[in-house]
Amino acid sequence: MRVLVTGVAGFVGSHLVEYLLRKEDVQIYGVDRPNVRKDNISNLMNKFDYTEIELTDMTSVQGVIRDIIPDKIFHLAAQSFVPNSWKAPAETLSSNILGELNLFEALRLEDIRPVIQIAGSSEEYGLVFPKETPIKETNPFRPLSTYGVSKIAQEMLGYQYYKSYNFKTVLTRAFNHTGPRRGEQFVTSNFAKQIADIEKGKQPPVIKVGNLEAKRDFTDVRDMVKAYWLASEKCDYGMPYNVCSGVAGSIKEILDILLSYSTMKDKITIEEDPERMRPSDVPILQGDCTKFKEYTGWKPSILFTDTLKDLLEYWRSKE
To answer: Which of 117, 129, 134, 255 is least enclosed, having the fewest CB within 10 Å?
Structure first.
């Protein structure tokens, strides 16, 4: 089986490659932007076929698709940091929507019909009222960020190409996920890095925070990539599926857990940073994963406390 992973050098992409390498009879191809940092896959580069490509360049995309002729695609490439979508909305929309459109058009023009897993997001739901939790796939979209809008567009493109051209699109809506190698701009990783830097004496014993009251549904990335594979094997095409733990906790609770693992927890103070506050924030994202579990048999296997331990150890190990 020839499997193509877009955004392969990213957080999820690197974990997906590790997962795929444990499978027999899978030939892995990965693409990412030119000059992207490859720290996440530096120890994997000799184990799969890697190509640098801009998904916004249609000619290049078509060439790669023609060369690989993939049986399965995991489309992970995206501008995925929500706050950046307020600072660079045009770039977010262009990268996320045009990149996927070029991928679809290349497949259409080459008359290739692989299974394509589209990595959607719980940010598509946006403003969710307490009575609507846990969130089912039927909940209305009320996006509160350009990123959320872009992911809705990606999903709608996936549905349209499924109906118009018989594309085998699998539409997953992943809720928050984290673990080792998560980018430092994301909240769990940012907290872990700050704690590690404090322990190393690299910063004063003060942790800068944004909104600690928001509630999120977190899954370990290593469970998430298993879910993506199962989705590509067992889910119906053109239909959305939530992928989540089904449990939501506040960002403050996450910070408290991470602090409990530090020998310096009694010396650390918390300070709100206005720069970390979003123009509009989603109060709660707690998903209902019943449909996905019924189709695939998937369930999270890694305790979230262990995920946070591994994340903190990851940052402790960095120089």
So the answer is: 129
Q: What angle do CA 304, 96, 156 make, to 5 degrees?
A: 90
- C-beta separation of 107 from 62 below 8 A: no
Nearest to 99 by CA among 159, 31, 37, 167: 31
The domain 180-216+247-283+302-317: what is its CATH number? 3.90.25.10
Q: What is the pLDDT along the chain (319 residues), one digit of tens a residue?
A: 999 999 999 999 999 999 999 999 999 999 999 989 999 999 999 999 999 999 999 999 999 999 999 999 999 998 876 777 778 889 999 999 999 999 999 999 999 999 999 999 999 999 999 899 999 999 999 999 999 999 999 999 999 999 999 999 999 999 999 999 999 989 999 999 999 999 999 999 999 999 999 999 999 999 999 999 999 999 999 999 999 999 999 999 999 999 999 989 999 999 999 888 877 777 888 999 999 999 999 999 999 999 999 999 999 999 7
User: By the 8 A CB rule, do 161 and 169 touch?
Assistant: yes
- Are 242 and 300 in contact by the 8 Å Cβ rule? The answer is no
User: Is the peptide bond between 274 and the residue preceding it cis, with omega within 30 degrees of 0?
Assistant: no
Q: Which residues belong to CATH 3.40.50.720 in the chain?
A: 2-177+218-243
2-177+218-243 sits in which CATH class?
alpha beta
* Maximal C-alpha separation, the chain: 62
Q: Are strands 249-250 and 215-216 parallel, antiparallel or unpaired?
A: antiparallel
